[in-house]
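Quick one, tokens below:
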């Protein structure tokens, strides 16, 4: 939790704001203080209260950069609406304000225009009047936030503040993206030693541990984060995902539901709830969740395939075939939809069918296609086709090491890098409730 929020100064500010909001007791609060109050409520998992503070600020300071930027980011992320966010940000009166510049770049990133965002920030750096090092690290962090790690690394290389906490945090995120988990976790643990009450660092550690299949350690790190802030959204989601991966469905459901109380319209989590309810044998409820997920932005074709998956998992073959056929027709049999269907079939355990479908997909795949190779390799392994497995493994590791780690990692010693799988014999897990998905 931000240490500023624990100070007597902020507590007095919050009291003044709540007196103004609830009792109309007049107290001067400037735009930056309204922003801090909104940030505090957002951190507590109370987005509606955060927006109330921002809207009150905009009534008093209608062209102020900070509240407009705060609201634009919410629209960009929660509503996935870059156009609406852009219209709002243009109401900022002082466009030399750096918060305006950062938010404008984020809108470009949210609109899948990373190179445009990079060019824009480079132009802004030429006229930046403050500390250039701060600007560089801010830009690197923005690109990392939107998973543009190559650009984040380019910006980070401009900085000389190599011992700065922000520098190290971005460096750890880049290393994590590169699959260099030992190095990443070493840096994150160093940051935790400096600030053991940082939700952000504990969440980073949990994400790294999850990605390298250290699921129980990831859950433990999430619990440390939740002990600091029980409503931390990332920690709730990390723990839910970890519990789901271990097959603790009822407990996972509790944490997904806690997350949805804070973000009820999160399409990805609504889809996870659909998978979870299907796994619990509640197909009707699962279908309701996937309907909500589609209403809240998940890919239409993926939603249709997920409906087929739910029916397949609950032994309704005719409905399964109907949904899969619809997805293929609507997409003109796109490779993406064939891949979705193959993974759904794999996930339910029909490995010979999944292997055949993946084999046909990957045989004709475009050179840039990288998904499904590890799944195909796992099918070969589970079906005792070791010669095929070894051939498929080589391609899986080369094309998509992250997928290889997620799907094949439990066949090798914990922490092994995917490129080392090629020189080691795979060993079946001792207990194998479900093959990885």
């Amino acid at each position: 939790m931000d240490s500023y929020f624990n100070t007597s100064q902020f507590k007095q500010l919050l009291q003044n704001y709540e007196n103004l909001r609830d009792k109309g007791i007049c107290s001067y609060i400037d735009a930056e203080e309204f922003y801090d109050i909104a940030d505090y409520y957002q951190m507590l998992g109370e987005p509606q209260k955060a927006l109330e503070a921002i809207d009150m600020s905009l009534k008093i300071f209608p062209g102020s950069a900070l509240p407009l930027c705060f609201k634009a980011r919410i629209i960009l992320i929660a509503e996935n609406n870059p156009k609406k966010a852009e219209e709002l940000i243009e109401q900022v009166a002082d466009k030399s304000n750096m918060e305006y510049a950062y938010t404008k770049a984020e809108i470009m990133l949210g609109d899948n225009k990373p190179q445009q965002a990079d060019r824009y920030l480079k132009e802004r750096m030429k006229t930046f009047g403050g500390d250039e090092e701060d600007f560089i690290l801010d830009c690197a962090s923005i690109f990392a936030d939107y998973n543009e790690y190559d650009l984040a690394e380019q910006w980070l290389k401009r900085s000389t503040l190599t011992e700065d906490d922000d520098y190290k945090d971005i460096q750890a995120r880049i290393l994590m993206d590169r699959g260099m988990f030992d190095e990443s976790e070493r840096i994150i643990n160093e940051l935790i030693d400096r600030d053991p009450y940082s939700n952000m660092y504990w969440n980073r550690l949990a994400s790294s541990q999850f990605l390298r299949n250290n699921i129980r350690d990831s859950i433990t790190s999430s619990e440390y984060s939740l002990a600091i802030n029980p409503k931390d959204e990332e920690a709730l989601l990390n723990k839910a995902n970890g519990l789901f991966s271990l097959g603790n469905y009822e407990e996972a459901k509790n944490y997904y539901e806690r997350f949805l109380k804070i973000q009820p319209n999160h399409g990805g989590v609504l889809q996870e709830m659909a998978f979870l309810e299907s796994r619990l044998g509640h197909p009707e409820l699962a279908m309701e969740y996937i309907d909500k997920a589609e209403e809240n932005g998940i890919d239409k074709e993926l939603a249709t395939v997920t409906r087929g998956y739910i029916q397949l998992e609950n032994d309704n073959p005719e409905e399964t075939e109907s949904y899969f056929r619809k997805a293929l027709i609507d997409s003109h049999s796109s490779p993406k939809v064939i891949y979705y269907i193959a993974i759904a079939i794999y996930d339910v355990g029909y490995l010979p069918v999944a292997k055949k479908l993946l084999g046909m997909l990957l045989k004709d795949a475009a050179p840039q296609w990288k998904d499904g190779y590890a799944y195909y390799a796992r099918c070969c392994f589970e079906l005792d086709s070791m010669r095929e497995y070894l051939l498929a493994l080589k391609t899986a590791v080369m094309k998509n090491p992250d997928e290889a780690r997620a799907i094949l990692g439990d066949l090798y010693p914990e922490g092994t890098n995917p490129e080392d799988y090629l020189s080691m014999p795979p060993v079946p897990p001792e207990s194998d409730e479900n093959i990885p998905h």
